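TL;DR need C-alpha cells for one chain.
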Amino acid sequence: MKIGVDYYPEQWDRTLWNQDADLMARIGIKTVRLSGLMWPVLEPVDGEFDFSWLDDAIGIFSHYGIDVILTVPTNCLPMWLYQKHPEIIRLGADEAPLQPGVRSRRCLNSPVFMDYAKRLAKQLALHYGSNPSIYAWQIDSGIEAFPCICKTCKDKFRDWLIEKYNDLPTINSALGTKGWSGEYTDISQVRPPLVYAESRQNPALNLAFYRFTTESTAAFVKEIALTIRREAPKAKITTNAAFKENLPDFFRLFADLDFVAYNNNSGESAGKSGSNAFNLDLMRGIQGKNFCVMEQLSGAVSGRHVIPPTPKPGMITGYSLQALAHGADTIIHSRWRSAISGSDMFSYGIIDHSNVPGRRFFEFSELCKTASKLTAIDSTTIVSEAAILYSPENEFALTNQLQSKGFTYMEQLRSFHSAFSRFGANVDIVSPDDDLSGYKVVIAPEMYVYRKSTAENLYRYVIKGGTLIMTNRSGVKDSNNNCVMEILPTVYKELIGAEITECDPVGDKQQTIVDFAGNRFTCSCWCDILKLTTAKAYAEYNDGFYRCCPAVTMNKYCSGVVYYVGTVCDSDFYESFIGNVMRQTGIPRLKGLPAGVEVTTRTNGNDDFIFFFNNSEENVTINLPKPMYSILALEGRDRVDLRPYEMDIVRK
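>> reply
TL;DR here they are.
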C-alpha cells in the first residue's frame, strides 16, 4: 500500500519545496502527483516550453525517495491558447462559448485543441519518459463526457450517425423521428439534443449523443496515451474517474489504459458517515483488477455555495483503509496543503492555510505508519462469488427519462450491494458483457436498454447453472432507446418465467409485499404486476387492486435459477432476500454484524486477510469464529473492538 499526496509546486514559494519534501519523507509518503493544473507554466508562450522548475521539483522529491505521478495538464488551458484559437472553446446549450479561464472549457473534438494537447504530451514524454522517478502518468484531470454543440461536434456527430446507421432512412428509423414531425430529409438537419428544451428532447437522440460524447472522450484519452507511449513505451498510464454529472462510460474510458484511477474525495463524505464501498467495488470491476485512488479525502471539499463539515476523527484513516479493503493499492490524498488563492482555496488539504500541522496532519501521519505494516497485503486481490452488473447506458437512459418519484438506477444497484455487505460478502461490479461464469450469483438490475450481447450473456449464464436476479424496468427499450412493442420484459420473458400485465409507478406512496414465509416488507417507487407462466411467486403484493399478485418471482430455467424483483423495497427486504439466495447458492454468510460494520476479504491464494471497518459513530465489537492474528496490532485475538471509523485486519 502506497500513500501519497497531490502537490502543486507552482502555487508555493520555492523555499517551501524542500521543506515539504523533507516532511513528507519523514512521515512516510511514497508518491506525489504533480503538474495537474500547470499547462500555462509549462508552456508560457506558444511553442516555448519551460520544464526547468518542474525538473527542480521532481529532483527534490527524487532526492527524498518519493515517486512522481506526472499529469498531462490538458484540463486547464493557457489563456493565450483560448485567445489565439477561440474555436476550441466548448459551446453550451445556448450555442454560446463558455467563459474560459476555469476548468474543462475546451472541446475534446477540436482538431486544434487535439494538436496542442498532443504536442504538450509529446514534449513531456520526450523530457521525462526515461526519468526513473516517474511512477505513472495521468491524462487530464477528472475528465467528463461534456456535451458540446460547436460546428466540429455537430459535423462529427452527423458523421458518427452515418457510420453507425449507413443512411438517412435508417437514422430516422433508429431515432424514431416521426413523432412531432421530426423526420430528417437531409443529414444537415440533425442537431445535438441540447439545442432543444429538455422537455422536448428525443430520448433516442439523447442516447445516441451520449454514446457519441463518451466515445469522443475515450478517443481523446486514447490518443494522448498513444502519444506518450511513442516516446515512453514503458510508461504506466491512467486518467482519473469521478462520479460527476457528465459521466463517461468508464469501461470505454479505461479500455486502453494500464490501470484505473478514481477520485474518492466527494464533499458528501466529509463530516458524516457514508459508505464509498459501492463506488470502490465498481472501480475495481472496470478492469477486473486492483486500482488507484487518485484523490482521497483529506479535508472539507468546498461545495458550490458552502464549505461542508470537516472529516471527523478517524475518517481520513478509515476511508483510506476502506479503499485498500476494496482493491486500491495506491492512495493519493487530494492536497498536501490548502490553497491560499483561487477557487479551490476552501478545499482543505492535509495542512491548513496556516502551514501549521494540526489534527488531520497527525492522523494522516499515523495512516502512513499503518501503511508501512501492510506489506503482507501487497500481493493480494479480491475474489468474489457475487457480481452486480453496471451499465452506463442504462444509467444514462433512466436518468434521462425519470420513471417515477424516488426511482433511480444507481439506488437499486446500491441496495443489492448493501445487502451482500451486511453478510460480509465480497461483491464485484462488472460490465453486462463480462464473463460471468465464475460467479454463483449475478444481479442484473434494470436491463432497460437492449443489447444483444448482454441478453445472450445472461441466458448463457443461467443455462450453465447460474443464479440470476433481475428487476423491474428490464427489456423496456430497444438498442436505440425506443420502446419495444412486446409484452414486458420482452426478450427476458422466457428467462424469468412471467409476464408483466401492467405497471404502477407508485412513486413515494408506500405499500407492502409479503414473502413466502409471511414476512412483510415496505415497497414503493414502482410495481410490476406479474402473471406467472413457469415461475413461482416468492412474494406477493399486499395492497391495492393487485393485492395477491406476484411481486417477486423465482423460475428454474435449464440448469439455473432466475429471480425477478418487480418492485423497489426497503433494506430489510434486500437483506432477507439476499440472505436466502446466499444460503441457496452456498455463499458464506457472516451473521450478526453490528450496523455500519463492513467486512471485505483480500487473498494471495494462500492466506486470506479480513478487513473489519467500523463505518459508524459508535464503538462496536465483533466476535470472531476462531482466534485470528491482527496484522495491525501484531497479536492474536478472538474478538475485534473498533472505535468509530477504525479498521482492523486479521489473517484468517
